[in-house]
Amino acid sequence: MTPKNFENKIEEKIAEAARMLATAEYPVCFTGAGISAESGVPTFRGPDGLWEKHDPQKAVSLSSFRNQPEAFWDFARELVITSGASPNPGHQALARLEEQQILKTVITQNIDMLHQQAGSKNVLELHGSLEKADCRDCGARYSWQELEKILKRDETPECRNCSSLRIKPRIVFFGERLPEKVLENAWQEAQQADLMLVIGSSLQVYPAAGIPDLTLQAGGKLIYINADRGSRPEIFQLILTGRAGSILPRLADSALKISRGD
Ligand code: NAD
Ligand code: ZN
Fold first, then answer.
1. What's the CATH code, domain 42-82+128-171?
2. pTM
3. CA atoms in the 13 A half-sphere facing the CB of 27
4. Based on CB atoms within 10 Å of each CB, which residue in 23, 49, 180, 202 is the most buried?
């Protein structure tokens, strides 16, 4: 397919997705690392993926965090500081859709806080986020602001109260359970949704990856916005392959026009 044909086709698909979005009763979205890729946050998988450099089983596992917290903080530094991440047009489009009362909820697997920074309010963080952390030894609490300053100095956070290095961010480490309340809310939202946009996720990390299935089982439809067709293309009503930061603003513009009746 020539690039021009491809563009025509993607425009048609965006128009179709916009119609579905504007007429849905309860549309939600489910996002993964791919939506933050254009913000410079590395995804786990793929050629420039973080797995190439850091073994996440080590860096983000509880057992190694106990012995080697600096491995985790090196990884976190690279994820959100060295990358210079800030929200991209994809995050902003979702925030706009929520503000205009089209999109109900953002269910995300990301821990990078970029949806909130873009202005999304109703965000369910299945894997927690770096926003808050607690000292495992004395219970002292930390905000991202405080941690960010320490990480920017290339240091590993040390408790200001008891000097412990075991300051654990409120993210879900490998082998840990997902926060129950957040997971329940996400299940509920997914079941209530008659349309879910699944954006930038390889759908390989469970139980999060099972959430779109709940929408499907309840009779809702799924649209996939992803760099590739993924491993389960058959579950989607519509697949828009490409970059979320390019597709989502066009989708939002178009859906907002339809819902205003322009
Ligand atoms: P993943 O890395 O497994 O898959 C990312 C998907 O996004 C891939 O299918 C890829 O083709 C697609 N993609 C890449 N660039 C894209 C773009 N510009 N536009 C649209 N799609 C694009 O991500 P996952 O499914 O979220 O699973 C990874 C796990 O790792 C999650 O549990 C998440 O918590 C964690 N993680 C989080 C971050 C973050 O917070 N930003 C980053 C890396 C990993
Ligand atoms: Zn402490």
1. 3.30.1600.10
2. 0.94
3. 21
4. 202
